[in-house]
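Ex. 9. Protein: DNA mismatch repair protein MutS.
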Amino acid sequence: MAAVSEADAEATGIVGEFLSLKAETDADFLVMQVGDFYEFFGEDAETVADLLDLKVSQKSSHGSNYPMAGVPVDKLTPHLKQLVERGYRVAIADQYETDDGHAREITRVVTPGTLLETTDADAQYLAAVVRVSPERYGLGVADVTTGRFLVTEVTGEDADAATDRVFTELYRFDPAEVLPGPEVRNDDAFLDRIRERTDATLTLHQADAFAPGRATHETKAQFGQETLASVGLDDTAGASRRNENPQVQAAGALLSYVEETGTGVKASMTRLQSYEGDDHVSLDATTQRNLELTETMQGDRDGSLFDTIDHTVTSPGKRLLKEWLQRPRQDLPTLRRRGDGVAAFADSALARETVRETLDGAYDLERLASKAAHGSADARDLLRVRETLALLPEVADAVASDPTLSESPLAEIVTRPDREAAAALRDELDALADDPPGTVTEGGLFRRGYDDELDEIIDRHEEAEEWLATLDDREKRKTGIGHLQVDRNKTDGYYIQVGNSETGKVPDRYDRLKSLKNSERYTTDELDERERQIFRLEERRGELEYELFGDLREGVAERADLLQSVGRALAELDALASLAVHAVENDWVRPELTESGDLRIDAGRHPVVERTTEFVPNDLRMDGARASSSSDRTASSSAPATSPSDRESAAGRDGERRFLVVTGPNMSGKSTYMRQAALITLLAQIGSFVPADAAEVGVVDGIYTRVGALDELAQGRSTFMVEMQELSNILHSATEDSLVILDEVGRGTATYDGISIAWAATEYLANQVGSKTLFATHYHELTSLADRLPGVQNVHIAADESDGDVTFLRTVEDGPTNRSYGIHVADLAGVPEPVVERSRDVLRRLREDEAIDVRGGQSGDGGGQRGGESDPQQVVFDLGSGQFRGGDDAGGDGAGGSDDAGSVDVESVDTQSVDPETEAVAEAVKDTDLSDTSPIELMNRVQEWQERLRE
Ligand SMILES: Nc1ncnc2c1ncn2[C@@H]1O[C@H](COP(=O)(O)OP(=O)(O)OP(=O)(O)O)[C@@H](O)[C@H]1O
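Predicted structure tokens for DNA mismatch repair protein MutS:
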């Protein structure tokens, strides 16, 4: 925001107050309460009015005019939300009474990561990133709306690996706001990556808050020494003093930021959870996006895996299911427990529906706990707590009364929360009326019988009201006036109104208040006294109920952990039931989870594509590393050429399928088949059933993908560079327990570079890494690797080509295919017929190494002239050099026969008529054993030969 101008500095009154408060905060905007309105002034008013479509008026102060834009007090929330969701931080200055009028102070700074007013079911994370060394980070994430608080330590073998992992975690939590620690905030590349790769707002929170001493103190004060110790963050060994506990530093910074912004929800942050990356499947940012877990590549939620499988009926259930999907697990006991739960729900349709119908009435207890802690929960919110707590025994009964559910881990889930404590809190909340008002200051919140004093006030109030309600009848009788009524309004209070025709009958005890057109208004001493009594009672009732309500709400806030544990149990049931619903409706099966690493899928389908397509199921067989002889597969950075010794130490025995080279026509379903393998593995590792007739899934430690070309150009990065970065990340990170999906790696560069890279990457993955890998490619050269590298096998997606038409069969068969049918796809895509025909012709000639005429071209340059009337020029495209050899050089008559000019066709070189250097090169070419030379080596040699020939 601009510096304070001279006129601003002189501003007094409201505007002056606004400007001096504005100077106190580094928030983007300040909004200040002025009576019943919240107002923005000056530049803030203009910008905000523009953003939110508000009206700007002018406020004059000290001879200058200031723009002003405001919203009524009760309308601030939606406007605030809009600003914060666009990444702005907004300071709120509230007005309070003082002895001599009122004053204002900043009570809260609302930021993207501390917005409590969210109505979205999604988690809303605030993250802190601390770097203690290039290879070591601490990451903390907190959701102020639910009280979730997680920390982890992230390390890597080198700085790049550690940074990649930090981003994997950040991407997983998708934070709304990130607080970079002191080291990270000076690293422009790191910050740029946050800006590019996430939607988070970056906030520079005071560096002191990250300091080990202060952070440890904050964390201990919040969670207690024992909690710290129980999650392995104990600092008794002095670790934090030696600057060595980055998790605590991140946690401390988060807590101090929540405090500083005045969010006031620390009471709902009851549990610190430290998690290890090892518990979860590594899913890097690219993979999460490529697999379209929560959004499609186009950024839509519809059509994502989550959108497809989500049948939850509550917001917490939805949040939890999404979290499972984004953080699949490796530990079999947890996965089997979840699987047992899903299976039980799948088998007991009736009980499952009873549970889901009951859950349908549940509110978001975690969010309500945060609202109670913040002090913003009203009586209706506490009523929601009561109603939701009341569902726990109902759900527990539904589980207990079904033989299948009661024998399953679902029984443990419903008994995990402290049901007695939940019942006690529910009883306390019975104090609330059944239909309380939305405000907490005007009474009407409590049932009778809760508080004696309140009951007495209510009795007297009712009695006074009864007296008033019957006053008109009494007065009519006493005075004989027919047109008489008793009523109340703001200016006159209670009054007796008499029609003009009968004012003559009005007794002396009536005091006239005012005359209206057709009537007169009166009061009496008795009425005045009753009126005062009623006002007194109403005021006292409001005060007393507000006080009692405050106590009740505090009692709820104190039991935030109970609400969270009940909320969590209900969310788990909802998420598991949702998985069961999807499994039953779509004929999914429970996968057998093993530690063998093998992946066997019978009649597998793609979980999303099967919903919209007549899907052709396919089998998949891949062998895990643990199934093979123990071989030393420690990663090394040098990728040796394939050699017999490699073959001995490489990925396993003959016939083993560790690495599948997937070929097939364009559009035949290669990507779908590979993603299907990744998604089935991932679903199995969240505890879900999978789309197949049967499946055995050996748990993986990571899923890595390099799929398709992403639209990175918008971010100013070359697509090929991104492709290589992603490949590099995979080659560094994957292990023999990982699943790797590579789709057309190398496609983004010159053909021979591409083939060479793909070839070398295949060797490296097969020889050194040993991960299960699926590699789709159009480079048919790679299919020969199956004969040369153990564990590597070819599969192809079948297509039927008869009468010149291609039919995609979509079935996967062993062995390579030798065609890519790209021209057929061009035809399907509506490329003009002459171009399609001509492509067929060129392709045939290329394959047969025939000369190709350049239509409409000029001799030797292969192009240029339009019209095609001139004599066709004959050229040969030399696959070796990637160049045309045109005109007379081309040789041949274009009607078949082998071209003698291609540098690969050694036999046709006439060694008698050439110089000794050429002869030597020809000899070298002859002696080269192609079966024992890697493409890179071959390229080097060809380059050397070319240089010698050109000299
Ligand atoms: N098993 C299947 N059953 C039915 N439809 C399928 C199947 N597999 C793929 N498809 C459909 O075929 C289309 C092409 O699939 P996909 O993108 O996987 O092909 P591809 O071989 O990877 O293509 P390209 O080589 O051009 O990248 C998709 O629209 C997909 O929905």
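Check your answer against this statement. The CA atoms of residues 154 and 277 lie 8 Å apart.
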